[in-house]
Amino acid sequence: MSSGGGRLAHGVRASLRNNGQAYGYSVSITVALALLNADAKLAGTAHLIYFALGAAVAFSLLQALASAGFRKPLEPEPSTVTAMGVSLSLVSVGTSAVLAWGCAHYIDGVAAWPVTSFAVSAVYLMVAGAELALAERAQAASEHGEKVEKQTDEEEREHREDPAEE
After folding, report:
1. Half-sphere exposure of residue 91: CA atoms within 13 angstroms, side-chain side
2. 73 versus 142: which is more confidently predicted?
3. Cα-based angle 49, 54, 57 (whole degrees, multiple of 5)
C-alpha cells in the first residue's frame, strides 16, 4: 500500500484527464457570455436562451459530423495524449476568447447571442481537436510514447482492479 501522496497524484491525474477539455470550454463560453453582457448591453432571459441554444446547436452538429451521423463511436484518446493536448489549451481558449470579443463587438442586437455561442463552441471544439491531434502526432513521433502509454494503462488497470491499493 502506498502513501496518501500516491492516491492524491492518482486523483489529480484522473481529474485532469476527465475535466481538462470541459474546463477549457467552460472558460471559453463563460468569457463569451461576459463579453456579450458587457458589449452588447442587451442581456435578458430570451438572450440567454438564444445563447444556450446556439452553443447546443454547435455541439449537436459537430457530434453528428464526428460520429458520421451517429453511426460511429467516438473513440477515447490515450490519457497521455489528452494530457498533452489539454496542456496546449491556451490556444483553444485564447482563440475562442478573441472570437467572442469580435462577435460581441461587431454583431449587433439579438443575433449576437446565438451567433457568438455557436461560433465560440464550434471553434473551441475544432481547435481543441487540433491540439489533441498535435499531441497524438507528438506522442507517435517520440521514442518513449508507446512505453509511457502502456505503463499508464497498466497503472490505471491496477487501480480499477483494487483502488484501495493505490
Report:
1. 14
2. 73
3. 120
